[in-house]
Design brief:
By secondary structure, the protein is α+β, with helices and mostly antiparallel strands. It is built from five helices and four strands; from the N terminus they run βαββααβαα.
Length: about 180
């Protein structure tokens, strides 16, 4: 007999996957779904993917006891630990028919970490671009030298550098001091 919907429990596990480990994660999710499906009290699973390595896995169970039993399972613990080698996670649980969660996103990144990674990327690119532009346009007024420099820098950052930077640093940018994802 199905449990009362007010007693059902939803578990949301959010993971930021380290670049280059997307296929490892795909295989990991298949096994995680199998483990959940085999657990007593399992109801459903939903996967929500975001761009560039963010995944949110939602599991619904009959009640908190079913969730506790599933999370205490040694096979599940070992399986979760395997993903910790290439992803960082946040797990949230809520009971009832209508639940709400705050999911991690790129906006959750620490401002100081974002500043450091962006500056370390911008400085060398800006140095090269401004050196070339100053050499080519050495007699032009400063605003005319800055115009192509700013256009080239902005275009390079927007379409080449920042997408790669976010992909390769998201794993670190979104970790809190305990190594978990932050919301």
């Amino acid at each position: 007999m199905p449990a009362d919907p007010d007693q059902t429990v939803t578990v949301v596990t959010s993971r930021a996957i380290r670049a280059g480990h997307e296929e490892d994660f795909e295989q990991w999710v298949k096994e995680l779904n199998r483990l959940a499906h085999a657990a007593p009290g399992y109801r459903a699973a939903i996967r929500l993917g975001q761009t560039a390595g963010f995944q949110h896995l939602l599991f619904r169970f009959d009640d908190q006891d079913a969730v506790d039993a599933w999370q205490a399972d040694n096979a599940l613990k070992a399986h979760a630990a395997a993903a910790d080698a290439y992803s960082t996670m946040l797990r949230q649980t809520s009971e009832g028919d209508a639940v709400a969660f705050d999911l991690p996103s790129d906006a959750s990144a620490s401002k100081w970490k974002r500043f450091v990674t962006t500056w370390l990327t911008v400085f060398p690119i800006l140095l090269v671009i401004s050196t070339i532009v100053r050499t080519v346009l050495k007699d032009a007024p400063l605003p005319l030298q800055l115009l192509p420099s700013s256009l080239i820098l902005t275009a390079t950052l927007q379409w080449i550098i920042l997408p790669r930077l976010q992909r390769y640093t998201r794993f670190w940018l979104l970790q809190d001091s305990s190594g978990r994802l932050q919301t």
